[in-house]
Specification:
By secondary structure, the chain is of the alpha/beta class. Helix content is about 35%, strand content about 25%. The protein is globular and about 55 Å long.
Length: about 300
């Protein structure tokens, strides 16, 4: 069982389904409203836990109903929540509009932006005991950087999902064992032309695993060879959380080697879009194994 520490955001997702995205100034009738536990950090933690990893979550919620609900939800997934602090701000939320299997998202970070280096230091023992430390960018960059430094201090792989996309400092890039962007995030994170992503992967051998939608994922080996893991064909219901599922799975299966970890992460991401909700669609280990056997 892999031990994964996730440093990241915890949100409540409020989802509206519509026939089409509203234009500026337009009011539309929606077809459905739902709330789902979310946040990239919490999503990736749940994905890893369902796939058999022993997961610890480091994050921050508000002293409100959403915060209590989110901690309870994570605990039900078997995730260690001891290092989730309570901030002054309200629990983070995401407003998601769904139409035709696509989504548009507005995030209000709230308490997520209160996660600090001090919170990371409190959980240093968990990081020291981890097999993989996984972070995203919905919490302060300084906090993510500090988590990377602690992971390096203890000799632990540090995975960074650079989303939402921002330009990364050389220091943070140097601390990152594996960068896990999509094509757009890669260009923004490394300040390179989007069309040159394959060259970028080869220039950073073994250090990037890039998702590419239905096409699957690409990564480079330690000697710079570009490898394509083909996508899996499924009927998409809700693409929210597919990337988070990929990341959680990648961390959970990293001990199996890059090729197998990416293959399983790609399959888990595909499975996740077949059901509604970022966490609601995330598969269990048994579901993933059954899916992979059917693809053989």
């Amino acid at each position: 069982m892999a031990r994964v520490v996730v440093v990241g955001s915890i949100n409540m997702d409020m989802v509206v389904a519509t026939e089409t995205f509203p234009r500026l100034g337009e009011t539309l009738f929606g077809t459905r409203f739902s709330t789902f536990p979310g946040g990239k950090g919490a999503n990736q933690a749940v994905a890893a836990a369902r796939l058999g990893a022993e997961v610890t979550m480091i994050g921050c919620v508000g002293n409100d109903a959403f915060g209590a609900q989110m901690k309870t939800t994570l605990q039900r997934e078997g995730i260690d929540t001891r290092w989730i602090s309570t901030g002054e701000e309200a629990t983070g939320i995401a407003c998601i509009t769904l139409t035709g299997g696509d989504n548009a998202i507005v995030v209000v970070p709230g308490a997520n932006h209160e996660l600090s280096a001090t919170d990371i230091d409190r959980a240093e023992a968990a990081i020291a005991d981890a097999d993989v430390v996984l972070a995203q960018l919905e919490v302060p960059l300084a906090t993510v950087l500090h988590a990377g430094k602690l992971a390096r201090r203890h000799g632990k792989p540090f995975f960074l999902n650079p989303a939402p996309a921002v330009a990364l400092s050389d220091e943070l890039i140097a601390l990152t064992t594996l960068l896990t962007p999509n094509e757009h995030e890669l260009a923004t994170a490394l300040q390179t032309p989007e069309a040159y992503w394959s060259e970028v992967l080869q220039r950073m051998p073994g250090r990037i695993a890039m998702t590419h939608g239905k096409d699957g994922a690409y990564y480079s080996t330690a000697d710079g060879e570009l490898v394509h893991q083909a996508g899996f064909s499924v009927d998409a219901v809700d693409t929210t959380g597919a990337g988070d599922t990929f990341n959680g799975a990648l961390a959970a299966f990293w001990h199996l080697g890059t090729a197998e970890a990416v293959r399983r992460a790609n399959a888990a991401g595909a499975l996740s879009v077949t059901r509604a909700g970022a966490q609601g669609g995330m598969p269990t280990l048994a579901e993933l194994e059954q899916f992979l056997q059917a693809q053989a």
